[in-house]
Amino acid sequence: MLCPLARCCRVPPTPSSSTALRPQTDRAPRRPEGWTAPGPRPARHPIDLREHEELSYLLGDWQIVQRRDGHRWSLDDLVTAWVASQVPPPSHLLDLGTGIGSVSLMLAWCFPEAHVTGVEAQEVSFEMARRSVHFNGVEDRFRLVHGDLREVVGREVEAHVWPLVTGTPPYFDDPQQTRSTAIQKEPCRFEVRGGVEDYLAAMRQAVAPDGVAVLCHASRQRSRVMEAISVNGFHIIRALEVIPKLGREPLVDVFVLSRKEASPFTFESLVVRDERDQWTEAFTSVRLSMGLPPRAKTQ
What we know:
The protein starts with 8 loop residues before the first strand and ends in a 10-residue tail after the last helix. It contains eight helices and eleven strands. Strand 4 (about 90-95), helix 2 and strand 5 form a beta-alpha-beta unit. It has helices spanning about 75-85, 100-110, 125-135, 150-155, 185-190, 195-205, 220-230, 280-290, and strands at about 10, 55, 65, 90-95, 115-120, 140-145, 160-165, 205-220, 235-245, 250-260, 270-275. By secondary structure, the protein is an alpha/beta fold.
């Protein structure tokens, strides 16, 4: 079943542009000898890579278009998709503020039968996501909507339709903080178009009565996030704090939310690196389950 979003457009093949079509010269992946990437194979359709762009590996053999000087997929995207991948396989799912398509593409890889909708306001990110979808060959089950999620969901979505809704809102709300002038980065990191409260309000409208929402946000704003969760009528059924290195404070929290009453929860912890600055066994397990190779980089 496809999501009922009136102005959604099925992602067509990327049109040609004035930029010359560059050959698909991938960087050599950092993979142990003999290791084979799991998961669905990408189609590797030709796409145009523009100035400052590159194809980077995502999950398995799938790749994503990223700017070298812009917003790039990272740990918070990975743990959000990993937590979301553990819910019952949905027939269709919605990713709010999908950016360059990191989480939505990861979930398309995890759920190869699911139809995916992503909503993104930044035109540059939206177009990069379109080309990544085309490169990997999943246009037949992918939809991208160019627009502000606060308007798109409220105006065009029939209430309570998605079994799974995900979102990774920007983390910074302090107007005094130094903002990056690099393309993409400010709206990805700062609340230019609303914050966690707006994401949760959209999730409340979009998630099915028996569905779940998965939300990632900065741990330092935990009290604010948990208050917004409660205000929007959600109950926490799972909470994971991600600790970048043993002994440090949590970096991000990932919540699994339901509209139904839930049992009391306690925070689980995922430590990424140990005291020797190597990936922990737990994080290595996460990587393997998400189609990433089992080799850590030594700092």
